[in-house]
Structure formats: C-alpha cells, structure tokens
C-alpha cells in the first residue's frame, strides 16, 4: 500500500469515526517511516476539517464530531510519541493556557498542539472545551502564563476571540500575555483584525509560533505585537 493510500485510509477512518481502523492506518504509516507530522497533516487534519465543516453546515451532529475525535485520538496515541525534537526549531520553557473557545466543542486540534508543546517541556494548562473568555484570562494571570492559545472549529465562536483581546485591554492586562488563535475558520486576516499575536493553521505551525513567542519574550520582547506572526521574526508592539 502506498503512502497516499495509507493517509487516505486514515482520513476516511477518522471521518467515519472508526477507532480501530484509524489506529491501524496510523500504525501502517509509522511502519512505512512516514514522518509523524506528515501523518497528522496528511490524514488527521484534513479529516477533522471535513467533519468540522459538516458539523458547521448542519450535515453532521455532535455525536459524529465526538466519534471522529475519538478516532483521531486513537491514531494520535500512536503518532505523538514518535514526534522528534526536529519537528520544532528548539525547545523552550514557558506556560501556555489553551482551550477551545466558548460555543465550540471541538478539541482535537487543541489536543495535538498541547501534546506537541508538552513533549518539548512547555507547561500546558488545558481548560478543555467551551471556555468562556474570562476563564482564559483569569487562569493565565493566576498561573503566570506567557501565552493564551485559543482553538476554534466553528465560525460562530470567532467573536469570542475578540472578547478575550478586548477584555485584556479593558483590564489593563494586554501587555502581560500573548494571545494566539487557530482552527479551521481562523485566518491570518482575522488574527490581525482582532489584534492577536499569532496564528497557526495547523498544529505544527501553532507550536512553532509558540516557540517563537517564548524565544522572543526571553529576548525582551513583550505583547502585544505590531503584527501577528505565523513564522519569522517577531515585531514588538
């Protein structure tokens, strides 16, 4: 079986919510020496995009979303331990408060990012799903976190991203914590519009953005940034 066939099989298994098949295709991909992040980006991420869009359009419901998430998790249990230090540009230490924003029950993208960051020594405080904006802020300030990471799959949850930023500003705390956003309906344009500091289209990009922010912070750069980053140099705001 070719790599393309294996990844297509994994994608189908996740969409259909079949745990055993998802784990089997993930195992086959690992045995075929497919890099872990390629398995995620080629099989799991596109499957969750399909399921998420169907959920948003009313063509799928919460049980289907949960089953797809469980199948993806079965595959990830095999994939995540195979991720090497080379998948990020370097290990840094810090604390990230992460969660899926209010109005959204999607968590697989959040879980992938959390797993990758934790594997590189970054402390993760996972608030779960359906997280109110103020809970991100209260937790980040109480725990001394450097970054708030907001995940979304559903377009209708996007306004709550802006509420996190605005609440930080209103409380005079915007300079205390970076805010990054990501997920299916999130774009770089939206990230800039709401004044967030970073955007990751997928788990690997999000992890690299976190790494850049923490490295920049260690070098004396503080939030907010002039422009959000997805890669490259940080700009101080």
Walkthrough of the structure:
Helix 1 packs parallel to helix 3, helix 1 runs antiparallel to helix 4 and helix 6 crosses helix 7. 53% of the residues lie in helices and 10% in strands. It is an alpha/beta fold. The longest helix has 22 residues. It folds into 2 domains: 80 residues, Methyltransferase, Methionine Synthase (B12-binding Domains), Chain A, domain 1, CATH 1.10.1240.10; 128 residues, 3-Layer(aba) Sandwich (Rossmann fold). Helix 7 links the parallel strand 3 and strand 4.
Give me a quick take on this structure:
The protein is of the alpha/beta class. The chain has helices at 3-16, 19-31, 36-57, 62-79, 108-119, 133-143, 159-170, 188-194, 203-218, and strands at 95-100, 123-126, 147-151, 178-182, 198-200.
């Amino acid at each position: 079986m070719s790599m393309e066939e294996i990844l297509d099989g994994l994608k189908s298994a996740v969409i259909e919510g079949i745990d055993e098949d998802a784990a089997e295709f993930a195992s086959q991909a690992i045995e075929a020496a497919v890099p872990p992040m390629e398995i995620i980006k080629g099989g799991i991420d596109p499957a969750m995009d399909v399921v998420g869009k169907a959920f948003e359009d009313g063509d799928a419901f919460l049980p289907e979303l949960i089953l797809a998430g469980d199948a993806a998790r079965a595959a990830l249990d095999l994939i995540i331990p195979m991720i090497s230090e080379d998948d990020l540009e370097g290990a840094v230490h810090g604390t990230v408060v992460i969660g899926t924003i209010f109005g959204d029950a999607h968590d697989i993208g959040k879980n992938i990012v959390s797993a990758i960051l934790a594997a590189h020594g970054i402390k993760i405080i996972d608030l779960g799903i359906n997280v109110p904006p103020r809970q991100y802020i209260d937790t980040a300030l109480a725990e001394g976190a450097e970054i708030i990471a907001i995940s979304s799959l559903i377009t209708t949850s996007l306004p709550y991203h802006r509420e996190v930023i605005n609440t930080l500003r209103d409380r005079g705390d915007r300079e205390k914590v970076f805010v990054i956003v990501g997920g299916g309906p999130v774009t770089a344009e939206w990230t800039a519009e709401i004044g967030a500091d970073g955007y990751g289209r997928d788990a690997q990009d999000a992890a690299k953005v976190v790494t850049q922010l923490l490295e920049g912070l260690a070098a004396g750069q503080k939030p907010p940034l002039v422009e959000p980053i997805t890669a490259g140099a940080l700009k101080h705001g």
